[in-house]
Amino acid sequence: MASATRNVVRWTALIAGVGYGIVHQTTLQTKYDAEKLHRHQAHRAQLVEKAREAYAAKKLAEKSGASSLVTDPEDPRFDLEKLIEAWTKSS
After folding, report:
1. Contact (CB, 8 A) for 70 and 79
2. Which one of 1, 5, 14, 86 is most buried, by most CB atoms within 10 A?
3. Which residues cross the membrane (predicted)?
4. What whole-number percentage of the chain has pLDDT above 90?
């Protein structure tokens, strides 16, 4: 049979191990959550930058007149001559 001192040491070690595990997991989870938040914010910033570039490109295209070309034949502003001219310029 184990002595009382031995049992106290065993139970103390068990409780200390469980306590350390809980504290360690909490620390790791906090670090993981912070890194996940940082990655999410960086991804959003990258998407915003891409959107700004696309908007600037769209505005530049509108100023140059490239977007005034209507390719939908059902549109009342459709002009076949402008469409053919644009195709010949791009070829």
Report:
1. yes
2. 86
3. none
4. 56
Among 33-42, 49-58, 79-88, the range with the most confident prediction by mean pLDDT is 33-42
15-41: average pLDDT: 98
74 token code pair: 């059902």
C-alpha–C-alpha distance, residues 44 and 51, integer Å = 10
Which pair of structure tokens corresponds to residue 82? 């402008």
CB–CB of 47/39 below 8 Å?
no
* pLDDT score of 78: 85
pTM value > 0.70:
no
- Strand spans (E) along the chain: none
Amino acid at residue number 38: H
What was the pLDDT predicted at 2?
77
Torsion over CA: 11, 14, 16, 18 (sign) = negative
For residue 52, the one-letter residue type is R
Both tokens of 71, joined, read: 């390719």
